[in-house]
DNA sequence: AACCGCAGTTATGTATACAATCTGAACTCA
DNA sequence: TGAGTTCAGATTGTATACATAACTGCGGTT
């Protein structure tokens, strides 16, 4: 029925969503640009109903913004929006870590985290880290954070964290990649890994306040380094998601 | 075109959304119950397209849950989900307050907050607070929190706060109402008002950490009292939103 | 008696036709 | 020449028809 890559196993809605998200993230649709339904139909090749669904979901994710008179536009993010999002994420992850500690996460639940931890250890051991190892690191880092958040055992908390994490620049992978542009990248990785170790230790010993503080510091490290990376606009092509950033004088 | 109360000024989608939300919140649709699109069409009187839109948006709000095989069901919340949501809200409001303090909210921006503060003062002065005054208090309290969150000047932070606040039991009004069931209700109101005063003071003096701590304590007060109110199941009919609570052994 | 399979039914996913609203431009009148 | 009005085009909102996938119940078989 469709011309290109018609994988029947996934729905038209999801296909449209993926396609449109790619267009936004890759910068083919610039921030502030209006995107009409018909236009989206042309892009994705599916009809208006699933396209509309996809647009609503992308608005929900925060990539698009509804226009009062109808339709959607690509959302524009300022640099501060991005830094705030990371700080927000860190704050909520701090809450999750504290809850995990206070409610006594069992040793059995901590096991996969420790495994993940030592997996990362192996990777960051090599100093000029290889490209392959680095992408493996990004994946493991995301996994670590996901496992950590699960420990709190609170569906509302996890849900909210996932929401901000859906923003491409608030994901753990994103700021790791951005930081990799800095000369002291390897050292940063080591510090981050120490944070990971500390938060597990805190949870194990039921030190809620410490677990929270560590996760907050973890985020602040990311904020500081991402700011530096944005200042020295080097290797930003590593992170296409940052193409969304526009220094619009919105306020 | 439609039979009942066809107010042309609002869209069918919004009307369906309001109608369905009422049904859920009023308990006409019980937690865990599956709700099909056709059923929703019968209830709302609009056709499938806007109904589907409304269902997606309600899922987004957190009132509904998508069923993997398709369709939606009314989400079931445990008591802990509710308490966690309030704590989560307090955590994010704490972040907002800290940002407001650190970034130096101007005296001009603080003015409406102080106005709101003294308006509430007038209300809580009377000890057996009248019913009218109480509902006015609920409205003013919500307004105060909204104004406070705006002070941080960060769109992502405000957006996330609004998301949890959309959950009926995480709204400031909700826990105020729940607490009103307690015998020491008036005293609680006075303490809460003191929190409000303290956070403004902290922001004015650029004491970020203090502003954050106050908002957290504010939430913890709400958590503690709501827990008590839920224990002594008195006057819970004041808060229909709590009908969503089901102590399902979900885990 | 229990289980596997098939068919009928129902519900959701998708496409498209129609209606209403909004935008923008051109034309007219002061 | 400028402002207001009207008409045309386009775009979104809504409804509905069609297709496909999931569920249910019955009947047959082992």
Care to describe what's here?
The structure is a homodimer of 251-residue chains. Chain A is built from ten helices and three strands, in the order αβααββααααααα. Chain A is mainly alpha-helical and 251 residues long. Chain A folds into two domains: 12-74, Arc Repressor Mutant, subunit A, CATH 1.10.10.10; 79-244, Four Helix Bundle (Hemerythrin (Met), subunit A), CATH 1.20.120.530. In chain A, a hairpin with a 5-residue loop joins β2 and β3. The first copy, chain A, is globular. Chain A starts with 11 loop residues before the first helix and ends in a 20-residue tail after the last helix. Chain A binds a DNA duplex (30 and 30 nucleotides) through residues 11-13, 36-38, 46-50, 52-53, 69-71. Chains A, B: This is GntR family transcriptional regulator.
Task: Please outline the helices and strands.
The structure is a homodimer of 251-residue chains.
Chain A lengths: L11 H14 L8 E2 L1 H8 L3 H14 L2 E3 L5 E3 L4 H24 L4 H19 L5 H20 L4 H12 L5 H8 L5 H20 L3 H24 L20
Antiparallel strand pairs in A: 1-3, 2-3
Helix pairs in contact in A: 1-3, 2-3, 4-6, 4-7, 4-9, 4-10, 5-6, 5-9, 6-8, 8-10, 9-10
Chain A binds a DNA duplex (30 and 30 nucleotides) through helix 3.
GO molecular function (chains A, B): DNA binding; DNA-binding transcription factor activity
Keywords (chains A, B): DNA-binding, Transcription, Transcription regulation
Protein name (chains A, B): GntR family transcriptional regulator
